[in-house]
Design goal:
Length: 96
């Protein structure tokens, strides 16, 4: 089993929401209340940012030979070792 992927961008959704809220309050000199439309908008923005961070982490892990998969692993092997991955062969099992 593979180890878990490296986290190049470590942020939680709560951390992003807190950061967006504090910056918004700082810029507008207002308080964001839990049920305000602004809070809902900031939560939506945080979810979009989290998806971007996940894409960044996935792409960065695909650049590491120990974490790459499929075609990305083949491309890294060609780049570093100049060899192609051997063709798959059938496995044979003998039961006694």
């Amino acid at each position: 089993m593979r180890n878990s992927d490296y986290q190049f961008v470590e942020k939680t959704a709560d951390g992003i929401i807190a950061e967006l809220t504090s910056k918004y309050e700082e810029l507008t000199n207002t308080t964001v209340h839990p049920s305000s439309p602004v809070k809902l908008f900031l939560s939506w923005c945080a979810s979009a940012i989290m998806q971007i961070y996940e894409n960044i982490n996935h792409a960065a892990n695909q650049n590491l030979p120990s974490r790459a998969e499929g075609e990305n692993l083949d491309a890294l092997a060609e780049l570093f070792f100049m060899k192609k991955r051997p063709d798959p062969t059938q496995a044979h099992v003998t039961l006694k």
